[in-house]
Amino acid sequence: MNAENRNIAESEMLAAPETVRMELPLPDPVRRQIRLWRRQIIDILDGHDQRLLLIVGPCSIHHPEAALEYALRLEQLSRQVASSMLVVMRAYFEKPRTTLGWKGLIYDPDLNGEYNIEKGILTARSLLLKIAAMGLPVASEVLDPVMSAYFTDAISWAGIGARTTESPTHRQLASGLPTPVGFKNGTDGSLKTALEALTTVVAPHSFIGVMRNGHTGIFRTKGNPFCHLVLRGGINGPNYSPEHLADARQKLADAGLRQRILVDCSHGNSSKNIQIQKTVFEFLIKQYCIGTDSLAGVMLESYLKAGNQQLLDKRPVLPDISITDPCLGWEESQEIILDADQKIHLAARNILRY
Question: In total, how many domains does the chain have?
Answer without folding.
Answer: 1
